[in-house]
Specification:
Pathway: Lipid metabolism; Glycolipid metabolism; diglucosyl-diacylglycerol biosynthesis
Number of strands: 23
Helix content: 40-55%
Number of domains: 3
Oligomer: single chain
Cofactor: Mg(2+)
Strand content: 15-25%
Keywords: Carbohydrate metabolism, Glucose metabolism, Isomerase, Magnesium, Metal-binding, Phosphoprotein
EC number: 5.4.2.2
Structural class: alpha/beta
CATH topology of the largest domain: Alpha-D-Glucose-1,6-Bisphosphate, Chain A, domain 3
Number of helices: 20
Organism: Lacticaseibacillus mingshuiensis
CATH class of the largest domain: Alpha Beta
CATH superfamily of the largest domain: Alpha-D-Glucose-1,6-Bisphosphate, subunit A, domain 3
Radius of gyration: 24 Å
Length: about 575
Amino acid sequence: MGYQENYQRWADEATLIPELKQELAAMANDEETKEEAFAAPMAFGTAGMRGIIGAGIGRMNIYTVRQATEGLARFMDTLPAEQKAAGVAISFDSRYESENFAHQAAGVLGAHGIKSFVFDSLRPTPELSFAVRYLKTYAGIMITASHNPKQYNGYKIYGPDGGQMPPDESDRITDYVRSVEDVFAIKVVVEHALRDKQLETLIGEDVDQPYYQAVATVTIDPELIHTIGKDMSLIYSPLHGTGRIPAQMVLRNAGFEKYELVLKQAIADPEFPTTPFPNPEFAQTFDLAIEMGKASHADVLIATDPDADRLGTAVWTGEGYQLLTGNQIASLMLQYILQARKMAGTLPKNGAVVKSIVSTELATAIAKDYGVTMINVETGFKFIGDQIKHFEETGEHEFLFGFEESYGYLIKPFVRDKDAIQSTLLLAEVAASYKREGLTLWDGIQALYNKYGHFAEKTVGVDFEGVDGAKEMAALMTKFREHQPSDFAGVKVASVEDYKAQQITKADGSTTAIDMPVSDVLKYILDDGTWIAIRPSGTEPKVKFYVGTSAGSKDDAAKKLDAFEAALTAFRTEA
């Protein structure tokens, strides 16, 4: 059906909830909005779905949430009885409709006789991952749009290992989701009936405390915290999200006593009134923390996004506060972990670090220096989780650290997704280690550059909003594949890694296979070691462009970065 027919189907539905009826009436004469909401269903893939809250098959509402859950339930109906009986853990963040969506999901599962374990209030994404493993459920559902603006919400499915559902299972669930012909006919059991039938259990402190105990094991040097960390000034912001209670709890339990909350951002407010983009990689999110930091001479400022899976930081430079990139934060944490374990004699011979293919090579240089294997995986933390599972099954490596440049880190694998609560605790400890030497985290990253080379990276996102956005993104990727650039800024392309074709093509035309899952990513390796990557975002209507380079000095690295970015933009925009 076309978007007009889809719209009319919803407008004619007698059971449609009043709020959505009002929205439909408001867009009756707005063809552009109507088309965006009803032209196509939301994409549902390995990262679940994410979109604007509102009426329509392409928006987040109780009917699209029910449809997604019906797909999961139909898939679980095909499983062996013991797997289906394990049930599903469900959590939600502070966004509009999140709690409602969580209980809608439980009601759909209950209609299939599937138990749900629903948190009694908002909890972080990493704790949902932990809950799946701790409760031994078959799956998990997290209602969140992570760091997106307030208009958005989302739905993520986790598998039995606590990682995002693997591609094979996710593809089958997607098929079941798409097989739902009438979203208004999906059966939903109301909450009191679920409780009566013991198909829904509320969870809270019984999972919180084991999670906090697990996070406490992230600390490497407790004595450092008790001597230096307890007096270190730290400011923390949960950006109106789920991190407030768990971050405070783990900091306090570890012995950090002088932390302060950014009070205006400690309120779990779905409006995100102090920051329209609640993303800790954006400078504006730190404005309030910096004001407080200047007043109290804080050593480090930390912010986590609304579902507390990403972490950003601003550190004192001697002249003011400077935001670190996700790559810099990861490099500091990695070097601390490896050095501390080397000094303690606990650095394993088969240790491994896992990072995405678009993350900094500074981490590779650090790992090599400590005799640790670096493993690159495709973008998406589920692929880091897959490696952890492989290590456990084969004993091939011991996991030491995993990260993505997009401000996501994992220190210990009792969680199988990025974990900003773990990261808050470890970063505070890293800051304390530098403070013991009279240094700051800013001094620390400069020391790494002086030792390993000046690495510089940049990520640029190009938005493709509207009905034709997906087609425009696909056309751009086709352009790069069909008109392969031979150089960028005068530096020749040595090889092209095409993760969709699963092939590496060298400048001489020779090819080798890529043994990774199929993914729409292109990565160019240049003669000077610079790399450039292009990929459509899995969660937002944008194409991301990445550049990573290095040089003997900060200024030279910055000049190279600017030149490559300009060359990439020129190629992208030329007719």
